[in-house]
Amino acid sequence: MILDYIGLKEINGSLIVLDNVENASFEEVVDIRLENGTMRQGRIVQLDGKRAVIQVFEGTRGISLDNTRTRLKGHPMQMPLSPEILGRVFDGAGRPIDGLGNIFPVKKADINGTPINPVSREYPKNYINTGISTIDTLMTLIRGQKLPIFSGSGMKHNELAVQIARQAKITDNSGNNFAIVFAAMGVKNDVAEYFRRSFEESGVLQRVVMFLNLANDPIIERILTPRCALTVAEYLAFELDMHILVIMTDMTSYAEALREFSSSKGEIPGRKGFPGYLYSDLASLYERAGMVRGKKGSVTQIPILTMPNDDVTHPVPDLTGYITEGQIVLDRVLDNSGVYPPVSVLPSLSRLMKDGIGEGFTREDHPALSNQLFASYAKVMDARSLASVIGEEELSPVDKKYIEFGKRFESQFVAQGFNENRSIEQSLDLGWKLLSTLPREELDRVDDVILDKYYEKAIQSDSSVTEPEKSIDE
Predict the structure, then answer these.
(1) Which interval of the chain is the signal sequence (predicted)?
(2) Residue among 335, 378, 373, 387 nearest 458 (CA)
(3) Hey, which of 34, 39, 210, 258 has its CA 20 to 30 A from 300?
């Protein structure tokens, strides 16, 4: 039996309140018919006996207390799913906005997902090649991992997101089953158009599913956007055996929408006004990444978040760092000096890369090279600190070599063109070329077998290039 509830008890912001509701359930979807016949959707977000608080997706403007009809649908919000979903563009609530019509679903799935049994999880292995040297070499993205990007306001995280989506690929025989799910939350119209145009012009849109929640869209949709995106990712990965990379930007906009929604419900705020359940709410999104035993597909996440005032202790990056397996940090100083992508190497890491690189995955020298580049760049920072006190001219010859290594490392290895797609071999070879500018005795993180094979080769190839240049200068 279908019941319509006529009239409302209360309207508060984006929330409406119904009394004397029978057999309602948390997260249940409702249809709301206004006095003029238009329809809106909502979901039950709070139950207190027979009193139901409903969140209206499109906002409550124009809703009457007397003549509004509310109908409970009997199920939570669902996302229509089909293999044809690839190449489509949706709004934040999963409605098509590309003019290609509705999805004809093979099935519908609850956007809140189903928790993965920890016992059935497989340990993430095998890397995803992004074509970006710093990420592939020093903080390798592993299939099934969640690896966030910590950025700041006005930095080039949008360009980096587009470059990763355009270049990312897997290297084994299942490479044809790789796709991107891209979710943008709270972005301006020009940024949304930039994302769409970039994917169309680069020809990768047919393997991308886009969700665009604009800054002028209802903030309630912002809470749904990552859940709709992850539901699509899970369907493609675990039912169609695809390897899916989910890029979500900007998680800070999502958290701020959650804070506003929590405040409208009258909940007690926590740190900086965010709800006390922010950690578990973020975890409910991030933990939907992974691999399941018996399934060929995988879900990998790159959440992107902007840190207010570049503060890494802000609740959103702070809690994200606890849940995820590492982070990629963008540096304001590098960005201001024109380095793209401005990846800050030392505070960045990938906790799972040790099991997805090396012989059989990338190349045998990869782990040792990565460790040595980290160690050498740390000494660059020490040498720069010393030079700021006593002057560069007073440094020892070895410290001067580290200063020169640091300049070349940032200008040749970290810096990379927006359209430059480097293979893992090119990145590793470039790392050895830079290390060849340092004395061999300084490379204490690499064993002699690897040094004999790659360091000596890099010195020979580097000298064969640089010697003619010196003679021309002379």
Answers:
(1) none
(2) 373
(3) 258
Distance CA 306, CA 152 (A): 5
For 319-354, letters b (16+ CB in 10 Å) and e give bbeebbbbbbbbbeebbeeebbbbbbbeebbbebbe
Centre a 10 Å sphere on the Cβ of residue 442 and count the other Cβ atoms it contains.
16
pLDDT per residue as tens digits for the range 361-401: 899 999 999 999 999 999 999 999 999 999 988 899 999 99
Tokens of 342: 């401005």
Query: What is the tens place of the pLDDT at every residue in 5-59?
Result: 998 999 988 889 999 998 889 989 999 999 888 999 999 998 988 899 998 988 8
Of 355, 382, 403, which residue constitutes the final position of a domain?
Answer: 355
Which of the listed residues 333, 355, 377 is the one where a domain comes to its end?
Answer: 355
Residue 361 counted as domain residue: no
Mean pLDDT of 55-67: 87
Contacts of 281 (CB under 8 A, 6+ apart): 258, 275
Cis (ω within 30 of 0) for the bond into 341? yes
Query: HSE (CB half, 13 Å, CA atoms) of 417?
Result: 4
Q: Flag whether 247 is in a domain.
A: yes
Same domain, 309 and 189: yes
Instruction: Of 122, 79, 138, 173, give the one whose Cα is nearest residue 289.
Output: 122
CATH (domain of 17): 2.40.30.20
**Contacts of residue 183, Cβ cutoff 8 Å, sequence gap at least 6:** 210, 211, 213, 225, 226, 228, 229, 246, 247, 248, 249
Q: What is the pLDDT of residue 173?
A: 53
Count of the separate structural domains present in the chain: 3
* Residues 111 and 228 placed together within one structural domain of the fold: yes
Same domain, yes or no: 287 and 237? yes
Pull the structure tokens for residue 380.
Answer: 């660059």
Question: What is the token pair recorded at 285?
Answer: 């999104």
Using CA atoms, how far apart are residues 186 and 260, in angstroms rounded to an integer? 13
Give the domain range for residue 454: 366-473
**Mean pLDDT, residues 106-114 taken together:** 92
Asked whether residue 282 is domain-assigned, the answer is yes
> 401 with 313, same domain?
no
Query: How big is the CA angle at 367 (ends 365 and 371), to the nearest 5 degrees?
Result: 115
- Residue 116 inside a domain? The answer is yes
- Unique residue bearing structure tokens 């799935």: 109
Please check whether residues 317 and 370 belong to one and the same domain: no
With contact defined as beta carbons under 8 Å apart, do 409 and 119 qualify?
no
Distances (CA, A) of 353 to 98, 146, 345: 37, 12, 15
